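Sync notes, pocket subgroup
Present: LS, DG
LS reminded everyone that the earlier model was apo-only. Rerun requested with flavin mononucleotide included. Inputs:
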Amino acid sequence: MLQPLLLQPLTIKGVTLKNRVAVSPMCQYSAIEGVAQDWHLVHLGRFALGGAGLVFVEATAVEARGRISPTDMGLWNEEQARALARIADFLKANGAAAGIQLAHAGRKGSTHRPWDGGGPLAEADAVSGAAPWQTVGPSALPFADGYPAPHAMSAADIGEVIVAFREATKRALTCGFDVVEVHAAHGYLLHEFLSPLSNHRTDAYGGDREGRMRFPLEVVETVRAVWPQDKPLFVRVSSVDFDEGGLTIEDTVAFAKALKARGVDLVDCSAGGNTATAPRVAPGYQVPYAAAVRKQAAVATGAVGLILSAEQAEQILKDGAADLVLLARKALDDPNFALHAVEALTGEFDYAFAPPPAKSGLDRLAGPLRRLRAAQ
Ligand SMILES: Cc1cc2nc3c(=O)[nH]c(=O)nc-3n(C[C@H](O)[C@H](O)[C@H](O)COP(=O)(O)O)c2cc1C
């Protein structure tokens, strides 16, 4: 029997993932001054114990004003780097490749964490240590009603953010990460430049598609220049805006071609987030974007969005829609998704993806499970 694609290794540049299950970045809003806590080690560590091939650390701000909330992860200083190195070490020691998503929230920064209601911070929040800050964006257009207008970035501001991405990438390397993903999706700063809905600039960083792509591409070029050539670089995109006049899949295919030309190894195809418009969600609702980008830009893609079963994940790979499957919510529901995928796709009780201490115990479950099945 042929081994299912989902369970096969995937080599990208100098990194080999032991399978094609990746855990998508997920903000935990639980860092202190941008520093990862025990929470993050346990949250991410359980996916390594659960056999995932690649585990991404959440959107990690490259500078303080690039956080979504005051409790976002950051990588603009050495203390933050030390805490993240511990996580990267743990993931790798337990068989998962370690990824980190580098991000800047742009006009969607300076907000409450979701369980405190989300929405913009107000001056009154300063009393509880969560003072609002001036956000930045391509144009002085607020994200939605009730959000303050960002400061429209000058050329000097753009240069500063590019330097922040460069320095964070260098730190990600010293932390020992295997994969860097640049966050250019979900209405955050890079997506804001890409989308005509949020970018009304009239200088070289706005206007036509080429102008709107300029800043994100400069970020990617800078990151690629300091991220070793044998290490994979991913970019997450919002393949489409869900509003009239927003990004289309044609824009994203053009962007993906430009990314590929600059040494990006995989385009992680998400969607939406630049306005309050929500997508119509169904299993695999974003997979067609990954398929279109893969086919039309001839670049490796990641598929994400309500991928709920091993069979569904396998079908995405078999259809040639993507090279890698990313899970967020389902991974929270089943951190052992990759271990369970083996039985789902092969019928075997085989815990080879688990690190030795977990495998040793699970192997003692495999025997009785096989005998019970044989007796049925
Ligand atoms: C709790 C949570 C936090 C998230 N944080 C991030 C993030 O840091 N960066 C990002 O690109 N996407 C983030 N997302 C989006 C997911 O990575 C993923 O793209 C989305 O949830 C769709 O996949 P799913 O249906 O498997 O959850 C987050 C999603 C959830 C549920």
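DG: The chain has one domain: 5-375.
LS: The longest strand covers residues 54-61.
Action: DG to write up.
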